[in-house]
Amino acid sequence: MPVKKMNGVEDTAPIKNSVPMGEPTRETSNLAHGHMWHAHHACGSHCCGFGKKLLLTFFGILIVYLIVFVGTLTRNKIKEYDYIGLSDRMERSILVEAEGVVEVKPDVATISMGVTTEKATVAEAQAENTQTMNTLVERVKALGIPAEDIKTTTYDVFPSYDWTEAAGEELIGYQVSQRVSIKMKDVKLADKVVALAGELGITDVGQLEYTVDDKDAYLVEAREQALKKIADKASALSRMLGVRVISVMSYSEYEITGYDEYGFDLKSSVMGAGSTPTLEAGTSEVRLNVSVSLEIR
pLDDT tens digit string along 40-80? Predict the structure, then answer.
């Protein structure tokens, strides 16, 4: 069929799109894919940020919890330290005390002896005082008392004053005083040592003491006595109070000390030269106090 040309333009039928109407083109497909990628990326970023915040919040709470936990443990440990050695049931306890006493014969005697000398000068007072004390020490050694049992305890030098209405206080000389402590492991020597005071002109004698040299064995005996008394007391209290002794909570003991003293003041009493007093050692007591705290139920 002949084709009609108009104005030199070929009249052709309209060209149909080669892509079917319902199918996307490559351009539209790429565009849609780009929009979807941007949307997915935005959503992923938002979700990631939220997750990080949630994780940080969780760690923050955990750290606070750990701080509180550690603080609580530390406080509890400090409280435990404060109460170490203290019973948590002090209100359910009784304290029982008793004393053990053992009579013993003393085996050691000690005495203090000395001289006070007054002269116009220090040198004169020292010379006379030293001569008297040296003689005393030599005579004590002659009785069989060793040098290690003789100990100088005091040595004093001081001025001596007199007071008159006309002159007031006036220096009249100097005094020298010296004392020694003598330990006698044979108590029978005490009589002879004291007798030297009158013979040598010893002016200061005192603190004669009879003691036991080794108390350990007697302390053991006194402790046994005290503990037996405590056991008897605890048993009686248990019956009377209607309670039961569970355990010992604490224990303490101490020795009750004292001494027998026999002294002389030769300035106010006269002892003739060569006279020997009769001194009796008698008996001494070793005393021990024991305290026991008992838990009861």
Answer: 555 555 556 677 778 888 778 888 878 888 878 777 666 55
Please measure the distance between the N-terminal and C-terminal CA atoms of the chain and give it in whole angstroms: 132
Domain locations in the chain?
Answer: 28-84, 108-212
Superfamily of domain 108-212, CATH level 4: Protein of unknown function (DUF541), domain 2 (3.30.70.2970)
Query: pLDDT for 190-224, tens place per residue?
Result: 999 999 998 999 989 988 888 888 889 999 999 99
pTM: 0.54
Cα-based distances in Å from 217 to 56, 225, 287: 75, 13, 12
DSSP structure string for 137-176: HHHHHHTT--GGGEEEEEEEEEEEEEEETTTEEEEEEEEE
